[in-house]
Amino acid sequence: MSRMSPASADLKHLYFQMLRIRRAEEAIARRYAEQQMRCPTHLCIGEEAIAVGVCAHLTVQDKVFSNHRGHGHYLAKGGDLLRLLAELYGFAEGCCGGRGGSMHLTDLEAGFVASTPIVGGTVPLAAGYAWAEQMKKSGAAQGCASVAGGRMPEATNVVVIFFGDGCFEEGVMHETLNFAVLKQLPLLFVCENNQYSVMTSLAERQPKRDIYKIAAAHGLTAVSGDGNRVDEVYELAQVAVANARNGLGPQFLELHTHRWPEHCGPNEDDDLGYRSPGELAAWKLRCPLLHTQQSLLAQQVCNDEELAAMEAALRLEIEQAFAWALQGTRPTIESMRQHLYA
Ligand SMILES: Cc1ncc(C[n+]2csc(CCOP(=O)(O)OP(=O)(O)O)c2C)c(N)n1
Ligand SMILES: [Mg+2]
């Protein structure tokens, strides 16, 4: 399949989705200081284009697995904002019953299976899910063949795993790549390369080389792109998702981006000096929202009033979502032993 740019209406939708994640993350950061959210929280401000550009090609039946920095993936896949916020406050109404916090998100109705804090933890889970999808498809094909003379089954549901450049250094990542290629799983690996694992840059951790080329050595189709350009992410993901869906095996995207806030928490940390001087400022000029907003205005897809209306709608939605979440109830002591396996 060849690459296609998003149509104007799609670009507007992509912009709105990115803006929704940005404003939700900013509101979380603002309210974090109130000390009511007690879970460690990794914000994805600056990286919104990747979640949005990839998830634009997924159906509800397609599944997403994520990591510690998962709010954007959850929202882009259609996860419930109310239940995300309630989870951050540790309330029973949260998407994990208030037991998990920011790094344990789930919304099965939306096809967002799980995020976990263990770096690499969800990578083999995603492969397992993709293997199950593949088995279901081949089971359906055998059923079809006996009933309808070998008619081809529907294309497979796709599984997407989002992870960082730090995760790519985990052994399980490479074991999973090997297995996914061996089994030709309908799995899309999305590496959000923000150049840092906590405060250590890629240059301090690895010899100079491209992550996607290491992935390609496992024998799958791997490409890299600008993770701050939602149109580019959209185009690359369109091809990758279609390939995975249509039996061409696992696909790999390495998308370059940058996290603006501190690794974990609501604040900025540029004063700590682990980023080179001017690095963050340069990335802020490459803001994914700003670029898309300029395109929408230049192409006359949106005017200033429509952009202001989007902001107003999101302000209301997010205010109401916090008001709902803050009325949550604490999980009961009796529920403490539920969902435990020993
Ligand atoms: C197995 C494991 N090792 C270490 C950690 C501590 N830790 C949490 S996030 C993180 C950095 C991960 O970096 P990356 O995968 O690039 O994601 P980013 O935070 O940059 O989005 C580390 C080392 C962990 N949670 N799990
Ligand atoms: Mg990183």
TrEMBL record:
Superkingdom of origin organism: Bacteria
InterPro entries with a match to the protein in the record: DH_E1, PDH_E1_Alpha_Subunit, THDP-binding
Endoplasmic reticulum is among the record's keywords: no
Keyword field: Oxidoreductase, Thiamine pyrophosphate
Residue intervals of the Dehydrogenase E1 component domain: 18-331
Keyword Oxidoreductase set for record: yes
Coiled-coil intervals, chain numbering: none
Pfam families, alphabetized: E1_dh (PF00676)
SUPFAM superfamilies for this protein: Thiamin diphosphate-binding fold (THDP-binding)
Cited CDD domains: TPP_E1_PDC_ADC_BCADC
Cofactor(s) named in the record: thiamine diphosphate
Protein name: Thiamine pyrophosphate-dependent dehydrogenase E1 component subunit alpha
Species in which this protein is naturally found: Methylomonas albis
Phylogenetic classification of the source organism: Bacteria, Pseudomonadati, Pseudomonadota, Gammaproteobacteria, Methylococcales
